[in-house]
Every structure is written in structure tokens, then in C-alpha cells.
Specification:
Blueprint lengths: L12 E4 L8 E5 L16 H4 L7 H4 L9 E5 L32 H4 L22 H30 L2 E9 L17 E4 L8 H13 L4 E3 L7 H6 L6 E9 L15 H24 L20
Helix pairs in contact: 5-7
The structure holds zinc ion.
């Protein structure tokens, strides 16, 4: 399924449905889009703006549908409008006219990377003009809202069916923090898992992933330097059996950070993420089996079955 309009070339996202019977695992990749809308008149060269992308992330997790999970990927770049920010996280300095409701710019906006980015990577201004409020509103209506609605719909559907749902919010990170980050000059772990300091998922879910990737030989950090932002905050309510975790994978494990081309490690990371998903499928089954009245269906085809890209 695609979102926003009938033209697949302008859809804001793609939903990859399970190949067979679904499990209550949903992945989303909000920052891996490589399709640049015509009205994105960024000032710096495209190659610099693309440094902000989580290039390849949706492809790296592509084993998800074969295991019964759903994967939603954004098609547009995060620098155009950032799905992992709240709608009031707007920099008034970016706008040519007044925003109609109160704004609450976060630290991300101060860093130039709020809902609509003010700065490209390396601190270069992204625009040579102010944006009209109507332009930002249009980006919200055409890109942010449809993606968020699609993610909420599938999470709700799985939760309704299984009584619980687990969500992986999938990202990538530069190997070393840049000057604008919270950890400048510091080499990062291979994986950074973020549950907003224990608030967006059951601890066993994060532990399962941490243990699994450590066994594969990767280093793991928890909530440092990334705790998770809007998407896990919005969807993670462990008391309601809604578990949401942010996963950051270090880019140099699978690509050249400058050219964005896959490197020799790409196949290994892709294979290991597929193994991780298989481990998670088993984790889910065990968790659901512990529920008093619900079990995981693994036989009958589901009406939503069938992959659409
Ligand atoms: Zn990201």
C-alpha cells in the first residue's frame, strides 16, 4: 500500500505487508527516503543534503515481511519534513509569516533539525529564503500525516488482534558525532537502542535485541546518545502492551558515509538483521503464549496478506 494520492511516484510512504500470516511486529523507517519532492528547493548541493538520510535502512530490514512483520518506509527525505518530530517543533525563524497556533520548539529545533530542518549537515543553511507557513502546512498534510496515520493504523490493528504489539523504529547514525550532535567527536557503538530511558517498551524487548546483536559480535549502547524521539514517544505505552523501541545502526558497518554506496559489510548486516528479526519473532511468540487468552496465529492466511510495494 502507498500513501498520499493515486500517483505512486508522489506517495509519501510504502507499506510492505506480511508475506503470510502476520505477527504483531511492525517496523518503520522514517528517514530512508531518497525521492526528493520538486518543491524542495534546498540551497546546498544534493550530495550534502543527502548526508541527513538514513540511506539503505528500509532495504536492510527487508526480511521483515517474510517473517510476518509489517514494514513502513518513507519515500521522501527527512530534511524536507522530519517524521520523528512533533508538529509544534517548528522554528519560527524559518517562517516568512506567523504560525497559526503556539509553537514549542525543542532542543532539536535549536540544533537546526526540528520538524522542518533549518540546517543541512555541517551546519550549512538549508534554504536561502524563508518558508511560507502554508508550505510547511502542506508538507505536514501531504507527508507527515499520512505516514503517521498509516503507522498508527497498523499498530492498532495488530494490537486489536493479538492484545499486544511491538514496534521497531529503524534508523542509522554516523559513526562519529558531528559538531551539532550531543556527542561531538565521539565514536559510537555499532547499535544504539533507545526506549526513552525505560518508558516506551518492556525492558525484556530491548534486552532481547541487545543480547542478540551482542552475540553476533556488535557493540551496543542503550539510550546513549539517542534515546528515541517522537515516533517511539507517540507509540510506546508498555502498560497497554504497546512496545516501541528506536534502533540506530552505525552507517560505516554497511556503507561509505561520504558516497552512500554500500560497502563490503552490507551483506553481513542485512543477514544479521534478518537473524535478529527471526529471534524477535520467537520472542513475541513466547510473550504471547504467556498471555492468558491469546496465542499467536501461524496458520490461516490473513486478509491483509500479500506484499505490496
Ligand atoms: Zn533516522
Amino acid at each position: 500500500m502507498s500513501g498520499t494520492g493515486d500517483d505512486p511516484l508522489t506517495a509519501s510512504f510504502v507499506r510492505h505487508d506480511p508475506d503470510g500470516a502476520p505477527i504483531p511486529l511492525v517496523l518503520d523507517s522514517p528517514h530512508s527516503g531518497e525521492w526528493y519532492p520538486d518543491d524542495f528547493d534546498h540551497a546546498p548541493p544534493r550530495a550534502l543534503v543527502r548526508q541527513a538520510e538514513d540511506t539503505h535502512v528500509a532495504r536492510l530490514w527487508r526480511a521483515a515481511p517474510a517473517l510476518g512483520a509489517t514494514l513502513i518506509e518513507a519515500r521522501f527525505p527527512r530534511a524536507y519534513i522530519d517524521l520523528n518530530r512533533s508538529l509544534d517543533d517548528i522554528d519560527p525563524e524559518l517562517l516568512a509569516d506567523a504560525w497559526p497556533v503556539p509553537l514549542f520548539p525543542s532542543r532539536k529545533t535549536q540544533q537546526g533539525i526540528g520538524l522542518v530542518w533549518r540546517l543541512a549537515c555541517a551546519g550549512v543553511p538549508l534554504y536561502s529564503r524563508k518558508l511560507a507557513s502554508s508550505e510547511v502546512r502542506s508538507r505536514i498534510d501531504r507527508y507527515w500525516q499520512p505516514y503517521h496515520a498509516a503507522l498508527a493504523t497498523i499498530l492498532d490493528a495488530r494490537h486489536r488482534e493479538f492484545g499486544a504489539v511491538w514496534h521497531l523504529n529503524c534508523h542509522s547514525m554516523p559513526a562519529v558525532g558531528d559538531a551539532l550532535s550531543d556527542d561531538p567527536e565521539r565514536e559510537r557503538a555499532d547499535f544504539v537502542l533507545g526506549d526513552r530511558d525505560g518508558t516506551t517498551c518492556e525492558p525484556e524487548f530491548m534486552q532481547c535485541i541487545a543480547d542478540s546483536v551482542r552475540e553476533m559480535g556488535y557493540s551496543v549502547a542503550l539510550n546513549d546518545p539517542y534515546k528515541g524521539v517522537e515516533l517511539v514517544r507517540k507509540h510506546g505505552r508498555p502498560a497497554e502492551n504497546r512496545h516501541s523501541l528506536q534502533v540506530e545502526v552505525k552507517r560505516t558497518l554497511y556503507m561509505n558515509e561520504r558516497t552512500l554506496e554500500p560497502n563490503a559489510g552490507y551483506a553481513r548486516v542485512e543477514r544479521d538483521l534478518a537473524r535478529l528479526l527471526a529471534t524477535l519473532a520467537n520472542y513475541l511468540r513466547a510473550r504471547l503464549a504467556a498471555f492468558p487468552t491469546r496465542t499467536l496465529t501461524v496458520s490461516a492466511p490473513h486478509p491483509e496478506g500479500g506484499q505490496t510495494t
